[in-house]
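PROTEIN DESIGN WORKSHEET
SECTION A - STRUCTURE
LENGTH: 164
TOKENS:
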């Protein structure tokens, strides 16, 4: 009888291990950064000219007039994507692509930081935006930097994509 319980216990542990979610390397990188930091992104193998467009919680489309906005918004509409409280996403648009080809949406669970890119929210919520850092709705992978700061009056980290 004891070997049967051991076997059942081992199966339960294996099932739990199989269900654990491995964090994306970008998510791990952002979670490790401390305020106030401006940092480059890790090499993710994206080709030069790739555009990165972060979308914060509740954001379902790109609003600013940015390159590829119409294509990206059509892609998101076709997927019937609706931003919500628990997710932020990064839209990756590789160069020399048309239509949906070359557009990828990476979804991330909201962790111990929030990704924001709306200029009004940045002005209202970010404690610090260092001189020389320019927040951007979309940024090329070569220029991409992230600012990690704090939300005013809290200990919550804010991550802002941009260039410096």
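SECTION B - SEQUENCE
RESIDUE ASSIGNMENT:
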């Amino acid at each position: 009888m004891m070997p049967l319980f051991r076997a059942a216990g081992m199966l339960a542990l294996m099932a739990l291990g199989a269900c654990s979610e491995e964090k994306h390397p970008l998510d791990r990188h952002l979670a490790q950064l401390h305020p106030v930091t401006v940092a480059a992104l890790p090499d993710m193998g994206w080709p030069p000219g790739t555009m990165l467009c972060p979308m914060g919680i509740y954001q379902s489309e790109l609003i600013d007039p940015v390159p590829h906005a119409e294509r990206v918004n059509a892609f998101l509409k076709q997927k019937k994507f609706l931003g919500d409280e628990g997710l932020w996403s990064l839209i990756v648009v590789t160069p020399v692509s048309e239509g949906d080809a070359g557009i990828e949406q990476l979804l991330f669970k909201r962790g111990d930081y929030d990704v924001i890119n709306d200029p009004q929210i940045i002005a209202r919520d970010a404690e610090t935006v260092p001189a020389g850092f320019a927040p951007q709705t979309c940024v090329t992978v070569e220029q991409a930097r992230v600012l990690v700061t704090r939300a005013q009056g809290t200990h919550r980290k804010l991550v802002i994509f941009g260039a410096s």
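SECTION C - NOTES
The CA atoms of residues 35 and 149 lie 4 Å apart.
Residues 1-20 have pLDDT under 50 and may be disordered.
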